[in-house]
Amino acid sequence: MTEAVADVGAGRRVSARHFVRLKLRVMGNNFRGQGWRIGLFALGAFAGLWFAAFGLFLFAVPGLAGNDQYATLLAAFGGGLVVLGWLLLPLIFFGVDETLDPARFALLPLPRRTLVTGLFAAALVSVPAVAVLLAASGLILTAGIFGGWSAALTQAVGVLAGLLLCVAGARAVTSAFATMLRSRRVRDLAAVLLAGAAALIAPVQLAAAAALQDADWDRLAEVAAVVGWTPFGAPWTIGIEVAQGRVWAAPVKLLITAVTVVALLAWWSRSLESAMVGTTSSSRASTRPRATGTAVTQLFPRLLGWLPRGRFGALVAREARYWWRDARRRANLITLAVVGLFVPVMLNLGGAGDTGGGALDTSSPVLVTLSMVFVGVLAAATLANQFGFDGSAYAAHVVVGVPGAVELRARMAAFSLYLLPLVLIISGVLALLVLGQPGWIGLTAGSLLATFGAGLAVNTLLSVLGAYSLPETSNPFALNSGAGVARSFLAVLSMLASAVAVIPMVVAAALLGDVWLWLALPIGAAYGLGAALLGAYLAGDVLDRRQPELLATITPRR
After folding, report:
1. Residue 254: other Cβ atoms inside 10 A
2. Which of 125, 331, 450, 510 could serve as 527's disulfide partner, Cβ 3.0–4.6 Å?
3. Who's near 548: CB < 8 A, 6+ residues apart?
4. Rounded to whole angstroms, how far apart are CA atoms 488 and 484?
5. For residue range 257-300, what is the model confidence (pLDDT) as tens digits?
6. Model confidence over 87-112: pLDDT tens digits?
7. Using CA atoms, how far apart are residues 195 and 334, in angstroms rounded to an integer?
8. Which helix (H) or strand (E) holds 449?
């Protein structure tokens, strides 16, 4: 940032070039002496190139096969899914790279337009952006085969415009949700909006599966034509339009894309100011009366008054407050609530037939158990970097010398206060509303409790051994450079290990038949509780030995 500061102080104009160079320099500094960061970046680059190669082949297939109808379908639907993924996946799974934190520029006399364009240009320098460019090159090849060099050149412009749309949409959406989640007055509205956005994934997948099963290509072509005139599909289909003789459609679709990008950047610009100061622009001074009582009384909420007034109870109360008040943690809870409810419904809807009465035919106990396993491991995966949420604040625990086992049991208990009610809701919804089998509540609840407990055990150990720092920013979706790969790797590792740990539950569901419907709940609850306590004991011993190393790892680097 020193070069940008010097240019500002000298009165020279700061351009997007400065932000790009600054990001590359910060990334290089973060990699110095951090071999694991370099390894994760290389792993992420390899995964991005692999997906890019797959996308390139997929988008080039219609041109190689000589079918322009399939070209329109793939360009519209494939491009639309790419844009939708950039909008939702940062909220649900990956987060956004916050190498250049907007709050760092708060004291510099930079116009908002310069700051937005600079941060936008820096956001384009990333592995996902390069992967999208390489994958969408298949559309350029397809357009060139059908329409020659003019169609290929037009499609190249469309691919660039589509990339700008993806990055602008991801930044605008994550920044807007970050602003809403920071405000306690509108967090419920943010939860509803995020849940609605994530819930779109399930209907889109079900509609796509039904459309492909019917194989009504004429109807799909009509839908693709409509999608091609929306911002989701417009930039990806302009080359196909030129190849099919509709040259007039290309500038119109480019105009649609340009207007959308400008609108998204304007939206991002409005929320960027609150991100720089760390508060919402609409916040007001609190008019509530101050809390009365001792510090111990104020620590324990009314709903947690039953907790023991000791070290364990204080840690549980602290973590319970943080899970609700911290925007980053609250964003994870909202995501878990949405995904955890829709995933089992999707899996079991796809595997059963409609009986005509609103309920579904009885699914296999193994299928139901597997769907619960997926939800359970996904729910516990949030704790894979639970110490990263604390950052340098964890130093207080190190100084006091909190025993590792007590620390981890308290964190498990606080997290379970939010997740266990969700477990019961998911179990009831699946058994009563989806399967139409009230007697299967024990199976669904037992499988989910066992998986959740095993996931807690696995993720507590991973949180001690594989923690990484999070940026000091008010954006709950922000990640340091390379941390997105670390987050994805830890999530996959935790889900695989948790799934392996509950294989006995799946085997029992396959072998015991109807008897397991009665035994699943007590055995699953005991299995999950035992696994969680054992995991806290084993991981607590490791935590006692490496508390200083863990603190150094999760402390953000400036």
Report:
1. 17
2. 450
3. 398
4. 6
5. 999 999 998 888 877 766 555 544 444 444 444 444 455 556 66
6. 877 765 555 565 666 666 767 777 77
7. 7
8. helix 441-465
CB atoms inside a 10 Å sphere around CB 518 = 14
Phi-psi region of 33 (alpha: psi -120 to 50; beta: other; left: phi over 0): left
**Tally of CB atoms within 10 A around 248:** 9
Contact 198, 339 (CB under 8 A): yes
Spell 281-320 as b/e; 16+ CB within 10 A means b: eeeeeeeeeeeeeeeeeebbeeeeeebeeeebbbbbbebb
The structure tokens 């949405």 sit at 338
Which carries the bigger pLDDT value, residue 530 or residue 197?
Answer: 530
Whole-number average pLDDT of the chain: 76
On whether the CB atoms of residues 57 and 138 are closer than 8 A, the answer is: yes
- Cα separation, 508 vs 289, whole angstroms: 55
Which amino acid, 80?
A: G
Sequence-distant (6+) residues with CB within 8 A of 381 are 455, 459, 490, 491, 494, 495, 498
Q: How many CA atoms lie within 13 A of 409 on its CB side?
A: 17
Long-range contacts of residues 241-246, Cβ cutoff 8 Å, at least 24 apart? 242/143, 242/147, 242/150, 242/151, 242/154, 242/155, 243/68, 243/71, 243/143, 243/146, 243/147, 243/148, 243/151, 244/68, 244/72, 244/146, 244/147
In DSSP notation, 257-304 reads: HHHHHHHHHHHHHHHHHHHHHTS-TT-----SPPP-S-HHHHHS-GGG
Q: What is the amino acid identity at position 51?
A: F
* Per-residue CA distances from 146 to 50, 237, 242, 244, 246 (Å): 26, 13, 9, 8, 13
Tokens of 197: 């956005």
- Residues linked to residue 354 through DSSP beta bridges, in sequence order: 360
Candidate from 140-154, 232-246, 315-329, 348-362 with smallest mean pLDDT: 348-362
Q: Which residues are registered as beta bridge partners of 479? A: 97
CA dihedral for 205, 206, 207, 208, sign (positive or negative): positive
Q: Which position has the token pair 């699946």?
A: 430
Q: Is the Cβ–Cβ distance between 385 and 467 less than 8 Å?
A: yes
Quick one: 173 exposed, middle or buried, by C-beta within 10 A (0-12, 13-18, 19+)?
buried
Three-state DSSP class for 33? coil
Tokens 């909190």 locate to: 402
pLDDT tens-digit readout, 47-68: 788 888 888 888 888 888 877 7
Rounded CA separation 258/256 (Å): 6
User: What per-residue confidence (pLDDT) applies to 157?
Assistant: 93
DSSP one-letter string for 186-216: SHHHHHHHHHHHHHTHHHHHHHHHHHHHHT-
The answer to whether the pTM exceeds 0.90 is: no
**C-alpha radius of gyration, the chain, whole number:** 25
Residue closest to 548 by CA, chosen among 452, 404, 418, 422: 404
Round to whole Å and give the CA distance between 378 and 386: 14
Q: Average pLDDT in the 382-409 region? A: 86
Q: CA angle at residue 342 from 339 to 344, to 5 degrees? A: 105
Helix axes 201-214, 217-227, angle to 10 degrees: 140
Residue 172 pLDDT > 80, yes or no?
Answer: yes
B/e letters for 197-207, b = 16+ CB within 10 Å, e = fewer, are bbeebbeeeee
